[in-house]
Every structure is written in structure tokens, then in C-alpha cells.
Amino acid sequence: MKKIVHVAAAIITRPDGSFLLGQRAPETYYTGYWEFPGGKVEPGETPHEALVRELQEELGITVEAAHPWLTREHVYEHAHVNLHFFEVPRWHGELQTHVHAALAWQRAESLEVGPMLPANGPILKALRLPRAMGVTQAAQVGIAPQLAALDRALAAGLKWVQVREPDMPLAERTAFMREVENRCAAAGALCSLNAAELPEGFAPARGLHLPARLLMQCAQRPEGEWVGASCHTRAELEHAATLGLDYALLGHVLQTPTHPGQADLGWSRFGELIADLPMPVLAIGGLRPEDMELARSHGAHGIAMIRGAWN
Ligand SMILES: Nc1nc2c([nH]c(=O)n2[C@H]2C[C@H](O)[C@@H](COP(=O)(O)OP(=O)(O)OP(=O)(O)O)O2)c(=O)[nH]1
């Protein structure tokens, strides 16, 4: 077996959602391929320290904030790499090309450069996943008020909705699911349907969301463009990772009226539980839009909100 080489790589983001890629220079493995800036972790360094050093050496920039995001393994002919991806939302300095043949700001949904390093396909898919999910609560507020709130949220830029309606009668649920899917599609938003509530023969258009109980019954990834799961424990998160799911939700981070009396995880336990996972994890439980930055500073990809999404 090849020795594992630890690598730190940066998703350097701009407020418009674009991120920086570098083209590998001649006389390296995979010359001409595009990568996220970064490099090997040296003995005695943490991945975070390596990231800060590499970005100074490669790009001449000083990192102000870097948050762990995903960790993925890949076996190349030349090395077995363990890639520690960080999000770098804040830095200063003038970008320079000290080691790359070229640099380019790109967007995951419309990449203009290529090819990417082979290990990075899932990273680009993860970067296409929206940062905020709104979870429906029509059985509590009523179908018409929920659809009106959905329209307002989509118009305001919400790009991801999970239909979760365990208390909605089956007869109403089919029509409600189709309606939410249609409104999301018209707004260019992803709609994930809760797998425990799917009426017989109803296939989600794009997104399938597994509650933890169904997740733990799956021996392989269910079919679908986007498949994710709700998790409460490290074992559930690891099972979601083994299945190759596209994302997980982990909660409840804060106290929430949805699950009264259940102990909340808190942010530091949340950060520990999601460490070194290969897929994005969103925080859920008592969260509001203003919690986004705090969540991301603890390694979350973003946040899922029930009440907080619709006000
Ligand atoms: N920096 C970076 N490396 C990546 C990404 N994806 C990916 O598979 N890798 C791999 C390619 C390399 O095997 C390793 C990064 O090592 P590196 O760039 O420091 O070193 P290298 O292989 O070019 O060679 P060298 O330092 O030995 O000269 O991680 C990525 O997005 N960014």
C-alpha cells in the first residue's frame, strides 16, 4: 500500500460565489490540470498551518480565516492522497502566480477551465450544493400560507427546499409535493423530498432526503441526482459517507420547539462530529439566516432552517 500523503487545499471564495483555481505547471504530475491552491502538509504541521504557508508561497496572500470543509481520499498512481479542503472566505494581498501556469476565478455550475484533477469531481459537485435549506412546515402553518412563504423565499433567493410533512394526510401530500417541486424548478431551486413520506410510486424529480432511520437501513446509495440524510450521531454521518451521499444534516445544534426537551449539540460538539467527513454537512436546529457565518466557521457547509427560512 502507498504511504498516505496529507494535502491542504483552499476553496478561496469571493462574495459572488466564485472560487479560485490554479493550473498545474509543467514538470509536475498532471501538468495542465486545474486544482485548488494548496500542497503537501509537512512533518510537524497541521493541515491548517500547511494551508496558510502554501497560500503565502504559491499566491503571495495572507489567510485571515480558513474553515475546514471536506476531507477526501484519492489513490493516484504516484500517491495515496488525503485532501483536507478548507474554505477561505477572508484573505489579503495581491494574487501572484508563483507556481501555477495560470489562475482563474470560476463557478461550480459553469466551469470554463479544465480538466480538473481527478480527485476533485465530488468537490465541484459539493460546491454546487446551496448553502441554505428551507424545510417546510405546512402541516403547522397551513398549505396556502406555506406556499405563499415559499414564493417569497424563492423570490428572495432561497435555492433549496426540503418537503418534510410527517403530519400531512397522504391525500394532500402528493399534490403538495408536486406543487413545491414545480415552484422550486421554476425558480431554479433544488427540491428534496423526504423519503419516509413519499406516496406509493412517487419519484422525486431531483432530490431525495433520508431520515436517519431509513439511512441506517440502506446498504447502498439510493438513486437520484441529490441524495442526503438527517443524522444525529457520528455513526450515522459515517454511514452517509460510506454510502457516498451528497450531503448530511446534523442537529439539533440549538434548542428547537420541533424537538422539545432534546439536548442540543452546541457548536463545538457539532464541529467535532463532522470533522474529516467527505461530504458537506449542514447544521440544523433552531437556526436563523444570521447563524450562517457561525455555522461555516465550525465546518458546516451551511444551515437548514424550519421556522427561520420562512419569516
Ligand atoms: N493542491 C491541490 N492538490 C490536489 C488537489 N486535488 C488533488 O488530487 N491534489 C493532489 C495532487 C497532488 O498529488 C497532491 C498535491 O501535492 P503538491 O501539489 O504539493 O505536490 P506535487 O504532487 O505537485 O509535487 P511535488 O510537491 O512533489 O513537487 O494532491 C487540489 O485540488 N489541490
The coarse silhouette is: elongated
- Secondary structure tally: strands: 15
- Series of H and E elements: EEEEHEEEHEHHEHEEHEHEHEHEH
* End-to-end Cα distance: 54 Å
Strand arrangement within the widest β-sheet reads 8-9-10-11-12-13-14-15
Helix content: 25-40%
How large is the radius of gyration? 20 Å
In terms of structural class, how would the helical and strand content be classed?
A: alpha/beta
Number of helices: 10
Unreliably modeled segments: none
Mean pLDDT: 96
- What ligands does this structure carry? 8-OXO-2'-deoxyguanosine-5'-triphosphate
State which percent range the strand residues make up.
25-35%
**How would a textbook summarize the main sheet?**
8 strands, parallel, barrel
What does this structure look like?
It is a single chain. This protein is α/β, with parallel strands linked by helices. The chain contains 10 helices and 15 strands. The protein has helices at 47-59, 121-128, 138-141, 143-155, 170-186, 212-217, 234-243, 267-273, 292-297, 307-310; strands spanning 4-12, 19-23, 34-35, 38-40, 62-75, 80-92, 102-106, 132-135, 160-163, 190-194, 207-210, 226-231, 247-250, 281-284, 302-305. The protein has an 8-stranded parallel β-barrel. Strands 4-1-6-5 form a 4-stranded mixed β-sheet, covered by helices on one side. 39% of the residues are buried. 8-OXO-2'-deoxyguanosine-5'-triphosphate binds at residues 7, 9, 28-29, 35-36, 38-40, 74, 76, 79, 81, 83, 117, 119-120.
